[in-house]
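step=predict obj=SelT/SelW/SelH family protein n=110
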Amino acid sequence: MQTAAQPAAHRPRIVILYCTQCQWLLRAGWMAQELLSTFSTDLGEVALQPGTGGIFQITYDGELVWDRKRDGGFPEAKVLKQRVRDRLDPGRPLGHIDGHVVGPAAPPEA
């Protein structure tokens, strides 16, 4: 339960605007699932908004994160998660999505 002394932290709203004529609902739903699986309760909402005219845009609190026409196609899940993370919590590691840091090879055991 929240009290007046403890206001709720802002949790962003992501909107995925997709073209119904192009039948991109499944793609939009999959991307929403990827974001919710990765960021869980750090997000306030991930909404699917139907549109027309070949539109596919993703916004983060009203700020355009991805535009199919501007960015040249659909985002890879990795790229979308990085763009959302960079707005939500830039210092947050995304594990394998960020790539592995390769250190020196361990010497072989005898």
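step=describe
The helical segments are 25-39, 68-71, 77-88.
step=end
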